[in-house]
Amino acid sequence: MKKAKKLVALLMASTMALSLAACGSKTDSKTSDATTDTSKDAAADTSKDDAKDTATDSADGKTVITFSWWGGDSRHEATIAAVNKFMELNKDIEVKVNYGAWDGWEEKMATGFATGTGSDVTQINWNWLTSFSSDGNVFADLNEYKDIIDLTQFDQTKLDLCTVAGKLQAVPVSMTGRIFYWNKATFEKAGIAVPTSLEELKKAGETFKTKLGDDYYPLAMGELDRTILMVYYLESVYGKPWVEDNKLQYTEEEVQKGLEFIKSLEDSHVIPTIETITGDGADSLDKNPKWMNGIYAGIFEWDSSASKFESALEEGQEFVVGDYFKDMGEYQGGFSKVSLGFSIAESAANKEACAKLVNFLLNEEEGVKIMASERGIPLSKAGLQICTDNDLLNKTVAEANGKVLAWTQFALDPKFEDAKLKNNPDGVYYDVMQGLSYGDYDLATATTTLIDGINAVLGN
Predict the structure, then answer these.
(1) 177-335+409-458, which class in CATH?
(2) Angle at 240 between CA 234 and CA 246, to 5 degrees
(3) Is it the case that residue 64 has pLDDT exceeding 60?
(4) CA dihedral 17, 19, 22, 23 (to 10 degrees)
(5) How far is residue 294's CA from residue 309's CA, in Å, rounded to a whole number?
(6) Share in percent of the chain as helix, strand, coil (round to 5)
(7) Which CATH class is domain 63-176+337-407?
(8) Who's near 407: CB < 8 A, 6+ residues apart?
(9) pLDDT value at residue 73
(10) Which of 221, 259, 311, 383 is 20 to 30 A from 393 via CA?
């Protein structure tokens, strides 16, 4: 029944999206998987998706390395500019780039990791270290290149987060966590302030419905968003991590309490149903016309994603960083994690050249100035100082990141983002949150499905 309902919603989506888009929306022409140059001097892309050159040197005698990443337009443009600058300063190295949007990117990278055909330098999601290189065979030990990459610019505690199987398999670029963002203009339209507590958020649901109409919601959340908010809520109530020592720390009764909380947000008109969001016909919330036009007035997102959501808003909307809710419980729930990192493939033919690129992007003034805060607030002390001195930090991202790091007390378990849990459409989080929202799962069934799925990934 759930699948059938979702199909109906998808069939309706095109009509809904066209109707909403008529009110005006921004388009993103460059976030699909790209292999074309964006400037005359841009680095040439790999000849086929993430394929590794068999030769170390190009025809003109330069060392060739490959570099891949995902992101939005501004990240692509900044990274390409930084790569161009690197090649200008290192004329003996040619960098071929491969980049795209997140959708489908992890699956593409997984194939490269499994076959040894991945890029020499890769922007990695933190959980990839344990998902794809738990034995240390995929990524090189960057401690061996500390004479090129200045690792002293990074706190050892952060480097430890990227040390798996005794190897420093990535340099962490930034830390991130989830926080609320609000469209202040819509709340003003409803005659209320943006919420600073859970009580205010629940009251806003009824206000939006009565004053603005059934289509308006103070918060919009997909399946993964709901799971992360549920964990934030439970950590606030019980004061313990979601997973520790590879074991789920919550009982069946406690997990059900978390799912009850998420269901209560739907029942209170705080968040739309999954069927409603699916019917909007957008690939992601930042591309949803209801977010762009202020019909959905809030999100719970990574601090490093702030600029993407802010830039998607139409004229007349006002994007503001929210606060953590102190009335969630007695504890400061929520978690932070390594946002992403740069890794060098164990199979890379010239790891020294790769290390030079990584250091340039993270620690050297010419690279840092171009990259700025496109990947979050830099963890590199040198990088952060350069950005601060030159007023290069995105102020919204900096405000959100400051609030996240000041509030959150829990670390994210790397397996929380395992593909079997978080991937759309077949991950456990999607199954559970869709089943609960569509009414195909009662609370007891949703609870056992979630716990069983997590334990399966944890190997318990």
Answers:
(1) alpha beta
(2) 105
(3) yes
(4) -90
(5) 12
(6) 45, 15, 35
(7) alpha beta
(8) 324, 332, 334
(9) 85
(10) 221
